[in-house]
Amino acid sequence: MAYLIKNVSVLGGAARDLLIEDGVIKEPAGENPRNIIDGTGLVALPGLVDLHTHLREPGREDAETVETGSRAAALGGYTAVCAMANTSPVADTAGVVEQVWRLGREAGLVDVQPIGAVTIGLAGERLAELGAMADSAATVRIFSDDGHCVADPRLMRRALEYVKAFDGVIAQHAEEPRLTEGAQMHEGEVATRLGLTGWPAVAEEAIIARDVLLAEHVGSRLHVCHLSTAGSVEVVRQAKARGVRVTAEVTPHHLVLTHDRAESYDPVFKVNPPLRTADDVKALRTALAEGIIDVVATDHAPHAVEDKECEWAYARPGMVGLETALSVVLSTGALTTSDGTIDWDLIAERMSRTPARIAGLAEHGHDPLPGAPATFTLVDPAATRTVDATETASRSTNNPYAGMSLPGRIVATFLRGEPTVLDGKAQK
Ligand SMILES: NC(=O)N[C@@H](CC(=O)O)C(=O)O
Ligand SMILES: [Zn+2]
Ligand SMILES: [Zn+2]
């Protein structure tokens, strides 16, 4: 079906019309199609790409499935998500990554690109079959033991060496396990006051420092998951200045929430790495604007009610984030031009083009202009909404923004010319 989008601003530019036909964007000419979308006041962005999503299938379909997570992603303006490997069974074989990839195709809401585990069962002892996953139908290029750190430096080195052959990348959950035993939240004054065991910033920074040296030594690609401290920013800054092939992501929640949220003892705020200090938040925003942090990635981590609505110490870490990511980023004002207006080009860079490039997703990250694949999203930047945790396509409601008023609303999302979202509603 063809669509005509009238009067839409592409990346903040002057209003124009776009024809969506045969899976691509065209210059409108001749007879107009019957389906017309009024784009007045809307901004077209390349479909967002998430490098870090937990879809929970196989194994915890009560918390999320590939389909429900894909729907949440489309509603958040995403057209591709990279699915983390910490499922049950773990995505550490060609069979499991192909299963996730196939479920994503069947759901048809976003492209689901599986991430493969680095080590068998995420146990940190033996390398998984990285080559078989790379050669599989899922063509895995990103490998991660996320949820766990590849703590053994020899294994990390081997993994970096191995993926170099096919330009793969190791995405590290940077957490020195000996420094975070029993940790419940960020190590600092709030943890001291609440009497909770702390997760010190240096547990993250020490691993990132080690890994950039390993990546430099091997000449391979390292990606730092959910970077959360000002010190980590400095380690990455120095490594980039030396030419190390390192990229880094920040989550929306680490850009707005701080460790004092734990004072509520509400486990919805329990997450790894933990919410940090206001100074860290400031440093992360600046680093994202500068490009020391390359991308925003959601770390969408849905959890079933019984794993969240319990005592803080027993609750699983993680929070949902796909449906609110763009709004949260807009709310920070971090990606603005010198006159304070939203820098849509920079948003496209951090949330679509760069993640697409890191993941090797050639069909994503293209500006929505004639000639490009019709894989894009339409945002209403003037809209505001109050977040309701239960109004979600996700199976889980562990939403830390509940009750907050956030700017921006996704009006439509298209994947290869097919609408996955129209009028803010999922089409499948
Ligand atoms: N971020 C989290 O707190 N939890 C993630 C794992 C992870 O990203 O480390 C999860 O799988 O629930
Ligand atoms: Zn992690
Ligand atoms: Zn994660």
TrEMBL record:
EC class (word): hydrolase
Originating species: Catenuloplanes atrovinosus
Molecular function in Gene Ontology: allantoinase activity; dihydroorotase activity; zinc ion binding
Gene Ontology cellular-component annotations: cytoplasm
Domain Dihydroorotase catalytic per the UniProt entry, residue ranges: 43-229
Name listed for the protein in its UniProt record: Dihydroorotase
Keywords: Hydrolase, Metal-binding, Pyrimidine biosynthesis, Zinc
Role this protein plays: Catalyzes the reversible cyclization of carbamoyl aspartate to dihydroorotate.
